[in-house]
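Here is my example:
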Amino acid sequence: MNVTKWILTGLFAAVLAFPGLTAANDFDYGTHKVVYHVNYSDTGRYMAAMGNIQNHINAVGVDNMDVKVVMHGDGLGLLQTAMTNENLRGRIENLKMQNVEFQVCANTLRGRNIALEDLYDASEDDIIPSGVAHISWLQHQGYTYSRP
């Protein structure tokens, strides 16, 4: 008798979940401006961050997103690791095709003596004067902050 009660409760919960899933897919999030902050050295976190960004784009829609990834300190490891990690490189390329900007801190480049050529697909246009100052400035421009 108890088993039947649990099975019926589980089925009822599953039925209730389906309309919620449909509603979530049809939810209008509007437009988003978001800055993703990367200042850590961890390939697993880099991969997860790229996945978070893609999930964000999938939920809101590429035409409704303005995404900046600001890297400073150990965060430049994201583009250094991508030089040899094909999976990470593919995720970065895919996000760039969706207009995600990867911005590199000039202070970190200078302070750690890192050449732009040592970073995957980075150019002079990607350099910002200061990672932390740029994040603050973007927040004042209406960008929300995320640190995956």
